């Protein structure tokens, strides 16, 4: 199985490379990055990862402490964000053009500081100075104005459009939120289809063609949300659902990378690649490869390829302890 995976990875490697011409994404300088980056961190159980083109390094969050670490090519981790925005951090997005790091925060009951007062209550996005790691703004997405019906909430992932608007998923809710560049939060779209039976909307990406794609974890449904004019939701037609759908990413040639797992449902540990010829009104799976490393959650696209994060959330959910993490390249 490992040999078969290696063959597929070699064939696909060029598809996962971020184009060198992209304004905020420069090449990986220095020696070639390894195929696997393994390390330990006191800020345990990273669920989210992003590539930082400024530092030429990965940034990872922490379910345990809520801090954000910088990870170098040798797996060495050091704290970037000393002031955690909440109990746990999840999705991360580098906005190098605006010198920003955007981070979702929530409490799903697994953090060091989890409490009845914050579990499935905390939900928002923090914006940090990318260079210094200093907190600039914290946007609460669980207020009576945004969620008058109450209920459980917990921001998970975010996507950024070309003008700096952030779009945020909440797997416990029926809405996708928007945060403007000046930090104003609102409900971008609310729809009963976004509400999952157990865990709802998870990974989200933005396409410059003018729409969002977001995956529902428990059902595996992929939704397209048009951004022009009034937001319009439609389900992307797939041959098979992406059950356990977690992290999403677009490649340079607009293929969609989907990381699925079985951390909280009937999904499987796998990385799939989808393509579309009609702006993702329909999509076809061109690769659906089992992932041999436990608990993959998301993928970071870099100039050197895509790296899938395994932050030992399977160990946490199983009641164990670990400070290890791995990033494996396609």
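Q: What amino acid sequence fits the structure above?
A:
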């Amino acid at each position: 199985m490992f040999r078969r995976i290696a063959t597929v990875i070699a064939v696909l490697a060029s598809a996962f490379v971020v184009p060198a011409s992209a304004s905020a994404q420069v090449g990986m300088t220095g020696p070639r990055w390894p195929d696997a980056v393994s390390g330990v961190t006191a800020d345990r159980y990273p669920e989210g990862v992003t590539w930082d083109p400024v530092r030429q390094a990965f940034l990872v969050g922490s379910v345990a402490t809520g801090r954000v670490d910088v990870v170098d090519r040798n797996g060495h981790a050091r704290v970037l964000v000393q002031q955690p925005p909440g109990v746990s951090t999840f999705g991360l997005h580098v906005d190098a053009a605006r010198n920003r790091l955007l981070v979702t925060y929530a409490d799903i009951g697994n953090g060091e500081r989890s409490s009845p007062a914050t579990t499935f209550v905390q939900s928002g996005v923090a914006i940090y100075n990318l260079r210094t790691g200093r907190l600039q703004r914290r946007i609460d997405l669980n207020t009576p104005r945004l969620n008058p019906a109450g209920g459980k909430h917990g921001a998970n992932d975010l996507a950024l459009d070309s003008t700096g608007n952030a779009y945020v998923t909440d797997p416990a809710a029926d809405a996708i939120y928007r945060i403007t560049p000046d930090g104003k939060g609102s409900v971008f779209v609310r729809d009963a289809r976004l509400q999952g039976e157990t865990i709802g909307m998870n990974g989200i990406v933005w396409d410059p063609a003018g729409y969002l794609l977001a995956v529902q974890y428990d059902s595996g449904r992929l939704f397209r949300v048009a951004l022009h004019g009034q937001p319009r939701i439609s389900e992307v037609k797939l041959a098979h659902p992406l059950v356990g759908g977690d992290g999403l990413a677009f490649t340079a040639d607009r293929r969609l990378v989907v990381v699925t797992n079985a951390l909280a449902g009937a999904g499987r540990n796998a990385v799939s690649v989808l393509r579309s010829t009609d702006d993702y009104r329909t999509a076809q799976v061109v690769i659906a490869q089992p992932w041999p490393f436990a608990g993959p959650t998301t993928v970071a696209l870099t100039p050197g390829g895509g790296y899938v994060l395994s932050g030992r959330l399977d160990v946490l959910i199983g009641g164990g302890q670990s400070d290890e993490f791995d990033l494996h390249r396609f």
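Q: And what stands out in the fold?
A: The domain at 2-329 is CATH 2.120.10.30 (Neuraminidase).
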